[in-house]
Amino acid sequence: MKKCIAVIIFLAMGIIAYSNIYNNELVFDDVEIISHNEVIKDISNIRKILTTNYWHEQANAGLYRPLVYLSFALDYALWQDNHVGYHFFNILFHLLTCALIFVILKFFIKDNTAVLLSTIIFAVHPVHSEAVTGIVGRAEVFSAFFFCMGWILFLKSFCSPKKQLIFYAGSLLAYFLSLASKENSIVLPLVLFISGLYLNKQKVLEKKWMIRVFLYAMVFVVYFVIRVSVLGTIGPAGTEQFFYGKNLSVVFFSMIRAFAWYFKLLFVPTNLVCSYRHWELSHTLFDVRVIVSLIPVIGFVVCSLLFFKSRKTYRFFLLFILVTLLPVSNIIKFGDLMAERFLYLPSIGFCGFFVILFNGLLKNIKILNHRKKYIFFWLIVINLFLIALTVRNAQWRDGIIFWKTTIKDMPGSYSAYYNLGSVYYEKGAKNKAFYCMKKSLEINPYVYQTKKMCGILLYETGKNKKAVPYLKNLIAERPDDQDLYENLALSYLAQADYQNALSACREGLDKSAKKNNIFYTAVRIYLNLNKPDEALKIALNAVDYDSKDAKAYTKTGICYMKLGKVDEAVHFFQTAISLDKKNLEAIDNLAEIYFKQQNYKRAVQLWEKAIKLYPSRDYFWYYIGLALEKQNNAQAALTAYKKVQLTLAYKDRADRKIKSINNKINNR
């Protein structure tokens, strides 16, 4: 009964801590890995899901996390764009991980109250906000969950002779699943070895147990072979490595500071920030920040390594922190200097150490010797953590808050301004996006992607005369980028300069590495010139160029529509939809054709499909209403018109239709 109460307490604390995240939007890496990822949007294609790079289009990112990918695909199948479900999944596995930690700590801490307090601190520690609140932080949570599962099963096999092999086999499987969630779980065999030393030094040094620990290395080899066969590389390559091109001394001195800051964040979780990518690096031992950081780092390492001599519980937890930080130490260069989410697994050691340390101190304070006062003290500590975490979660409310917070913490971060501009751009606030891009270039004027976005935004904010010379200069720098030619042509088109617009398209088709968007732009220009025959030639060239490009088929169908060749238009729209089931333009145009052919039933089916795929496009209900009226189904049409609420121009039309239908009904 007491155990059930303890479980209810730490689960309740965890639920309270993250109760304010359900309405959070996708932010930071969530956008690219989930929103912009077509792979996870088809759960039936399991093979592709399990054999795709974590960053899908960025092959040199060098990350392989198939189990997390599969969970995102499941999320999308269940919730589509409703992010509440995604957050629920993160919180659920965070709470399950807490439950496993509760079980693990009972092997090392005999005081049940201390075990409970340690678990609660893990459940509400503010440094976990990035891992649990950010949806892609799930990699940390999944990895820790299976890591702890493998750890528990090993401990049970170690302590239960009758079921050794069953528990051991389960532990090996859990280790593989942990690796398939995130690479940092590689250190589980080392954690199991030191756990064995703590529980029974002689037993873990026996030959059969040494072989069993060694077999975890075999599991890693299997994972490693699969990983390399999928990625074609061991890990992040080139500029995807944070320390790419940097000397080992720079890595070492900078990571000394990072480790000192990690220890500080665990013990004093203040000054938490969303991104550490623009920390100033250290190039010499005589950097004051390195010297100051060396003191706690050396003290921590020495104290933790003394475990091998004393096998004290608190030193075991210190050693656990050190071991689980090794994968993010940049011994092998990877994608980041540091991140708070990297502390999710190491914080297990901190929670155990912290409670043991303070238990010892509190016993010497007479005023806290009374049990009630002792528990009251811990409740204050934990609630302070809880309050800090609840406030911190708000930084992930949406992309604008997230990047504004990052800029406040790191005003010299050009990438933060770029990302804030990108969020504004996606939300349609293009003038604010342009301002952010300019601020980013003021800090670092050499980032091509930012310069490119400025060029695009010059066009999209109506500054076409300024956009032309700006884009021409960028084309001289990157003559193979189709987006530059596309926006240059559109800038000319906005000024009704058709000749230069077509000239920009011709140059782009000649020089750019990819040409799809330039074909679309040329089609648009010819249609504006009322030359559908010329537009059709370009559209058919686009189909020849990329026979799997749904948009090329859509543009071809539009050209045939303009020429009055309905059968050909239907064929190309149907092909476009077969290639891309969410191709809204093709669905809408095909529905329009059926409507004009008085095939109202088929038109309604297509518009209903469109509204199901894109619920915010509620103006399709207006067209559905028109088709239902044509079928003399006034009541159904009335219901459809009433569903137009978001698109104001169509809402006015729908309201007029509602009034007209009601008048007809009343006059009967």
Low-confidence blocks of residues: none
Question: What is the count of DSSP helices, taking H or I runs of 4+ residues?
Answer: 34
Mean pLDDT: 88
Structural class comes to mainly alpha
- Report the strand count: 0
**Largest β sheet strand count, sense and barrel closure:** none
Q: How large is the radius of gyration? A: 30 Å
Q: Give the percentage of residues in beta strands.
A: under 5%
Give an overview in words.
The protein is mainly alpha-helical. The chain has a domain of 392 residues. 71% of the residues lie in helices and 0% in strands. The protein contains 34 helices and no strands. The radius of gyration is 30 Å and the shape is globular. The model has no long low-confidence stretch (mean pLDDT 88).
List keywords for this structure.
668 residues; mainly alpha; globular
